[in-house]
Amino acid sequence: QVQLVESGGGLVQAGGSLRLSCAASGSIFGFNVMGWYRQAPGKQRELVATITSTGSTNVADSVKGRFTISRENAKNTVSLQMNSLKPDDTAVYYCNLKRLLQGDSWGQGTQVTVSS
After folding, report:
1. Is 84 helix (H, G, I), strand (E, B) or coil?
2. pLDDT tens for residues 68-86?
């Protein structure tokens, strides 16, 4: 049983920065993908960025050049550095873990609010 614990959300002015972190408890074996999703009020959940256990990244077009995803495999942690934040980035951000032949694991979500 893997649990994901998120931290780093908060209130920031447009143009500012935040760093989100997610720590996975329990052992994780084999190929896996960790990432961040977000859901704004009245909108569908959308992928923000992912990173595999081998280091390959995928970043949504809407945040390319502003957000950077990274991980430390030995510690089972993943981070999202968010720079040049915009009001449209306001959402609940969820940490996610995908493993082969297993269901997804999700964090509880952390609120990011960007003011004008």
Report:
1. coil
2. 999 987 778 999 999 999 9
